[in-house]
Amino acid sequence: MNKVITSAADGIALIPDGATIMCGGFGLCGLPENLIRALHARGTRNLTVISNNPGVDDFGVGMLVRAKQVSHFIGSYVGENKEFERQAIAGEIKYTLVPQGTFAERIRAGGAGIGGFFTPTGYGTIVAEGKETRVIDGRNYVLEAPLRADFAFVKAFKGDTKGNLIYRKTARNFNPVMATAATVTIAEVEEIVEPGQLDPDAIVTPGVYVTHLLKGAYFEKRIERRTVRQLQAV
Amino acid sequence: MEKRERIVRRIARELHDGDYVNLGIGMPTLVANYVPPGIDITLHSENGMLGVGPYPLESEIDPDLVNAGKEIVTELPGTSYFSSADSFAMVRGGHIDMTVLGALEVDEEGNLANWMVPGKMMKGMGGAMDLVAGAKRVIVAMEHTTKEGGHKILKKCALPLTGTKVVHMIVTELAVIEVTPKGLVLREIAADATLDAVKKSTGATLVVEGEPGRF
Fold first, then answer.
1. What is the nearest CA distance from A44 to chain B, expressed in angstroms?
2. Neighbours of B170 (CB within 10 A)
3. How far apart are CA B13 and CA B35, in angstroms?
4. Residues with Cβ within 8 Å of residue A195, at least 6 apart in sequence
5. What is the rounded distance in angstroms from the CA atom of residue A175 to the CA atom of residue A159?
6. Do B124 and A79 touch (CB under 8 A)?
7. Chain B partners of A128 at a C-beta cutoff of 8 Å?
8. Is B56 helix (H, G, I), strand (E, B) or coil?
9. First to last CA, chain A
10. Among A126, B96, B151, B172, which residue carries the largest CB count within 10 Å?
């Protein structure tokens, strides 16, 4: 059983037009950028993309949006991308907004075999329209459904050849939960190591969730807001 | 003092030692600059971090380390990282003591509207709906009226809601208002404002008990 693949192009080669793809990352942080670039190059179309944000115009999921490869986007926030906004206003892309915590939990439920859950988030708002509600211990809750995908693209820091993954800082975000919720999960990492080289106690995503593992050829890791402070004289 | 500074300085006085606090994007973020001496708080960022530090020096920049506003930040001794699912579990589960966020409208029941304006493109609620549903205390930081002088504190919100009966306190450059079962109680008035001016700027009934404090 060899999970390691040698190119991003191999990883995405079997993705058909019309597939549903989860894509990890928060803003531009922790993005599976090599897999996105490969899917962009291949030109796979009519995709449903499930990702917290659609990136910016020329990076991240925004590359797929700009090339008109995405027909439906599901996420929690779609600002920061002018081309997405243009397509949305023109009716060229469908999009569904989900509160960020509900979004994460729906994916968790999808990966954990949970058929839905009651959350207080969005009760009494348009998010709850048409959904079952229930009072539990005196509090109002809304029923939310699980979310799954055909493929998940996740970015981790390191992986071993069995597919065990560790993450780095806030580049973790949606990646571990998305790794659990797709039929095929492709993980791209900065370094592949042999089994035994990662501390078993530190593994966040156990290899059972990972179908293919790829060492990313190049990570740009673009910074969205370059906020720095100056060293102050003491 | 500039309006925003007055607002965030006042909100900083609501912090308790040991609090876990989520600060929204924009003006609420500035609360972190005015934490009173002797008060130790831990900042939560919903993208998966507890213990958010200051912006980095040029030499410390790390693209794997951002806050919920996608700004690069630093970690502190005792920082922890976790997934987005864990992050919102701690929000909804009532483990975050306080959240501070902006508003377009707030009303007498503590309903909050801050995420969409009909006729404009919907950009999304991000984590706001989860934060107001789950944080133990929700404080609104906003200017008292719109730029045109229109009311933002209303009898009933007109815009689509972010949450129902979720706001505990409203802090503006003119007043500190607490949302109670009796309605909106005017707790404090800005040092240079009058009760009459606050009432005129407010589109809701303000309950005044005794002499409001000054800030």
1. 26
2. 25
3. 7
4. A160, A161, A162, A164
5. 13
6. yes
7. none
8. coil
9. 58
10. B172
C-alpha–C-alpha distance, residues B76 and B58, integer Å: 17
Q: How far is CA A188 from each of CA A12, A24, A174, A218, B145, rounded to the nearest angstrom?
A: 12, 11, 14, 11, 49
Asked if B106 and B170 touch (Cβ cutoff 8 Å), the reply is: yes
Tens digits of residue pLDDT in B68-104:
999 999 999 999 999 999 999 999 999 999 999 999 9
Q: Among A177, A173, A205, which residue's Cα sits nearest to residue A25?
A: A173
Nearest partner of B152 among B193, B98, B113, judged by Cα: B113
The nearest alpha carbon in chain B to A28 belongs to B70
For the record, the structure tokens of A43 come out as: 């030109």
Phi, psi of B197 (to 5 degrees): -65, -40
Segment A3-62, tens digit of pLDDT: 999 999 999 999 999 999 999 999 999 999 999 999 999 999 999 999 999 999 999 999
- C-alpha to C-alpha distance for B22 and B25, rounded to whole angstroms: 10
Would you tell me which residues 174-213 of chain B have a C-beta closer than 8 angstroms to some C-beta of chain A? Answer: none
- A94 in Cβ contact with A47 (< 8 Å): no
Two structure tokens written together for A148:
């799954």
ipTM of the complex: 0.96
B124 interface with A at CB cutoff 8 Å: yes
DSSP code of residue B193: -
Closest CA to A59 of A90, A80, A45, A88: A80
Beta-bridge mates of residue B71: A225
Contact in structure between B55 and B69 (CB atoms under 8 Å):
no
The pLDDT tens digits of the residues spanning A150-192 come to 999 999 999 999 999 999 999 999 999 999 999 999 999 999 9
Return the beta strands (E) in A46-178 as ranges. 47-50, 70-75, 94-97, 117-119, 133-136, 139-144, 149-155, 158-160, 165-166
